[in-house]
Amino acid sequence: MINAFYFKDWVTDALVNVDIIDPIEITGPTGAALTHYGSGIISDRLETMVHDTADVSPTITEDNLRLLYTNAGATGAVTLTLDAGFQADAPDLTFEVKVAQNLTIDPDGGSTIHPYGSAAGKYARSSDIGSRITIRRVSSTAWKVINIVGTWTWE
Questions:
Q1: What pTM does this model have?
Q2: Which domains does the chain have, with CATH numbers?
Q3: What is the pLDDT along the chain (155 residues), one digit of tens a residue?
């Protein structure tokens, strides 16, 4: 049996072969099918899954997610909206301020970013270069801050 993995190259919009640099072991009952996220992690030590938002304010969905979002090419404020359709146990998302422009992380109206968000739909924002935050989807209505560096303002 030959197994192969192909992923979409976001720059060229083509399917590309993948080298597995950090192999993982996926455990489970014999014959269990690998689900959308399985029980493993995605490793991106070389930060090849980085998305520079520039001046675009996208909605991040499971279909277009990256592991690291930056505002490196931005000349103005950028808002990244988190889609309500994210499943719990999705890969962690990291956001980093690279230029002194507002980078806003805006959860859908029914979700809260814990423990800092005051209520559903309230955003996190920073314009301090080097500020970085990693969040994880923990339920259909909650994100959890896993790591936070720098100064972030909470709505």
A1: 0.71
A2: 45-154 (2.60.120)
A3: 445 555 655 566 666 555 555 544 445 444 443 333 433 445 556 665 677 888 888 888 887 777 789 999 999 999 999 999 888 878 888 999 999 999 999 999 999 999 988 899 999 999 999 999 999 999 999 999 999 999 999 99
What DSSP line would sit under the chain, residue for residue?
A: -----EEEETTTTEEEE---SS------STTPPP-SSTTS----TT--SEEE-TT--PEE-TTS--SEEE-TT-SS-EEEEEPTTPPTTPPPEEEE--SSS-EEEEE-TT-EEETT-SSTT--EEE-STT-EEEEEEEETTEEEEEEEES--EE-
Tell me which residue has tokens 């969905």: 61
Q: Which residues pair with 82 in a beta bridge?
A: 60, 107
